[in-house]
Amino acid sequence: MGDKSVADRLKDFGEVDNGLSPEEAIEEASRCLQCKKPACVDGCPVNIDIPAFVALIAKGEFLKAAESIRQQNLLPAICGRVCPQETQCEALCILGKKETPIRIGQLERFAADQERAKGLTVPARKTATGKRVAVIGSGPAGIVAAGELAKDGHDVVLYESLHAPGGVLTYGIPSFRLPKDVVKAEIDLILAMGVDLRLNHLVGRTVSHQELEGYDAILLGTGAGLPYFMGIPGENLSGVYSANEFLTRINLMHAERFPEFDTPVARMSRVVVVGGGNVAMDAARTARRMGAKVTLVYRRREEDLPARAAEVHHAQEEGIEFITCANPVRILGDQAVTGIECIRMQMCNLDESGRPIPEPIDNDTFTLDCDVVIQSIGQGPNPVLVSQIPGLDKGRAGNVVTGDDGSTSHPKIFAAGDVTTGAATVIMAMGGAKQAARSISEMLGSR
Ligand SMILES: Cc1cc2nc3c(=O)[nH]c(=O)nc-3n(C[C@H](O)[C@H](O)[C@H](O)COP(=O)(O)OP(=O)(O)OC[C@H]3O[C@@H](n4cnc5c(N)ncnc54)[C@H](O)[C@@H]3O)c2cc1C
Ligand code: SF4
Questions:
Q1: Distance CA 187, CA 401 (A)
Q2: Who lines ligand 1 at CB under 6 A?
Q3: How far is ligand 2, taken at its centre, from the CA of residue 169, in Å?
Q4: Which Gene3D superfamilies match (predicted)?
Q5: What is the best residue among 36, 47, 50, 88 to mutate for testing ligand 2's pocket, by most ligand atoms within 8 Å of CB?
Q6: Are 239 and 219 in the same domain?
Q7: Across the beta sheet with 372-375, what order do the strands follow?
Q8: How many CB atoms lie within 10 A of CB 187?
Q9: 125 occurs within a structural domain
């Protein structure tokens, strides 16, 4: 059914992508070759039986298709919307060699939306084991681990520092890409399995890690919510935000509706977003919906932008100006931001990942007028809790070191998601969480 028109999009925060109609879904699913060795499944970090659910959609059996997906994926309506399928399952679809690959993500979303409209069924639990597991953080890693552990019959307590569950799904990804009622419905289903959610509990501050010692196992899913800054003059001026803070103010605290909601955000007419990833696109498109003229400054070339192609396309359609091969050197202003000075960059040798290394061109600077600067240059693991646990091995970036099974150097502690990998993807966090939950159940003797 395509995307909403640009004029309609900019009126509110409603979802841009309208998804597939039943007729479109059947037609798309009918293109699937039902490969005997389906390459697409190899590209799925949670191993969804893709040909099976696609075949059910082709037959018009939408609810059975959703049931089939749910056996491997507890968050299908979310994944159908935000997974980078073009580099995962769809990248490996055999049809992609000659024509367009099957639109697996759209079909997953379609089946999950049909199921939600009819009413979701709470997954069954095994017999109670009497074992207690604490899960810290309710992003995709924590919520999926909690669901898997509840299915295995354990008593699960899920601690979340914020006043709403979901992690980045709730506070980071804007509702024009991921509507909050979709997130709520999938999380509520997991909570309905008997998971005890404790909001406003910052473990390591309002709850000490020693208080968790009574649990039989602990799973850390505290994410990578620590924003990095450029370290340039002017970063403390009023009107400078990290993308995390800016998006949290709007997605979670509804600053766009201040004073109806308590949290304000700076008035913005001209916004400069620094960075080129998905988070930068989300921040830029959000600022655009706040009525601002938005310029994105990225230090490499347009073809090097790390964001998904679809996100870049949507941002450009919505009128966001891209200035590439440029990097900020100073934010200007007295108390509040009035502009940003940037230097032009040239591409030199390649780094280890094959990307060009940008180098500044001496004295080639320019200034952009703006009243808000949003920095989106990456984020690292949240240190509040992991820095306090004695004997927990950490990598150079502060990430918790785990084995393939999610175990850490502490015998009772497992970890999954961005706190182990650094900023990654929803489905990677979910894949790690499923594995860590399996390992915990094995350790507790219930598998
Ligand atoms: C703006 C943005 C857009 C993104 N877009 C996409 C996308 O389109 N597709 C995609 O696949 N990925 C995307 N990502 C990445 C993806 O969201 C993350 O990889 C994923 O959410 C990681 O899940 P997680 O559960 O490990 O961590 P998080 O989602 O960060 O959740 C961690 C949770 O732990 C809580 N917490 C932290 N410390 C404590 C503590 N001490 N006590 C209690 N609770 C604690 C936090 O409040 C948070 O709720 C995006 C990320 C951002 C920031
Ligand atoms: S690889 Fe493509 S065509 Fe083959 S089963 Fe998977 S989705 Fe269908």
A1: 27
A2: 82-84, 136-142, 159-162, 167-168, 172-173, 201-204, 221-223, 225, 247, 278-279, 282, 382, 384-385, 417-419, 423-427, 429
A3: 28
A4: Alpha-helical ferredoxin, FAD/NAD(P)-binding domain, NAD(P)-binding Rossmann-like Domain
A5: 50
A6: no
A7: 240-242, 372-375, 270-274, 293-297, 321-323
A8: 26
A9: no
Asked if residue 80 lies in contact with residue 34, where contact means CB atoms within 8 angstroms, the answer is: no
Query: Are 216 and 287 members of one domain?
Result: no
pLDDT band at 349 (very low <50, low <70, confident <90, very high): confident
Residue nearest to atom 1 of ligand 2 (CA): 93
Are 245 and 342 in the same domain?
A: yes
> Domain range spanning residue 37?
6-118
pLDDT for 145-160, tens place per residue?
A: 999 999 999 999 999 9
- pLDDT tens, residue by residue, 99-122: 999 999 999 999 999 999 999 999
Beta-bridge mates of residue 365 = 343
Taking CA atoms only, the protein residue closest to ligand 1 atom 8 is 82
**Does ligand 2 have an atom closer than 6 angstroms to the CB of 30?**
no
β pairing state of 217-220 and 321-323: unpaired
Whether residue 49 is found in the same domain as residue 85: yes
* Residue 253 sits in the same domain as residue 157: no
How many whole angstroms separate alpha carbon 49 and alpha carbon 111?
14
Q: How many domains does the chain have?
A: 3
